[in-house]
Amino acid sequence: MAAVQETLVWDAPVRVAHWALALSVAGAWLTAEAEGWRLLHITLGYTAGALVLLRLLWGVVGTRHARFVDFVRGPHAVLAYLQRLAAGRAPRYLGHNPAGAVVIVLLLGLGLLVPLSGWAMLNDLGAEALEELHELLAQAMLLLVGVHVAGVLLASWRHRDKLVAAMVTGRKRAEPGQPGIRWSWWPLGVLLLVGVLGFWLVQWRAAPQGGLVQPERVLASERASQDED
To answer: What is the DSSP string of 95-147?
Structure first.
């Protein structure tokens, strides 16, 4: 048997954005209902929104498998893929498959709408209706995250791929006629990581007493100060 060959598929900016976005979304969800974690929730929400914007840009000018033209397909191609998947004959893609691409595009869209609606709430642009919209969009995003994870596990099992590991190393098993990318763009990945960590540091330093996670006594003091004003 020929030796299994791997090729570089996911560049460093894609991988850093993926995991930073996953961490931000998970953190924002965990802190959504805790008043004392409000500033951290806002910081993570803004981080997620900025990462989505950068991913959209990279989807236009980035490497082969990061570009939308490489994996976004029309409804006919998506339906055909799902039919073949149900029949156990789904082809293996080096990048995203057509069904996974739909979920990714929807996640990116919600990744913009959720922080945007949260920003509007902070600026009192929509009262209760906007708050309900924000929660509804967040729930829809969590549902899609679940679909995404299930799809990754299914594809990993069906094609014997290590898709989670590939999003860490950037490398996947390649078959004849499946070209990878030449360079990982690691300096840009490092710059993106530094930017995320730098933003968190700035937010932490700019936060009032208590930092991004504020104890109840600090919150009570702030409310009292606002009432006096």
So the answer is: S--HHHHHHHHHHHHHHHHHHHHHHHHHTTSSHHHHHHHHHHHHHHHHHHHHH
SS3 label, residue 207: coil
The answer to whether residue 94 sits within a structural domain is: yes
For the chain, the domain total comes to 1
- H or E element that contains 172: strand 171-173
Hey, which residues does 172 pair with through a beta bridge? Answer: 7
Residues 76-105: what's their mean pLDDT? Answer: 94
| CA 179 and chain centroid, separation | 25
- Is the pTM higher than 0.85? yes
183 beta partners: none
Identify the domain containing residue 41 by its residue range.
6-228
1 falls within a domain: no
Q: What percent of the chain is modeled with pLDDT above 90?
A: 76
186-207 average pLDDT score: 96
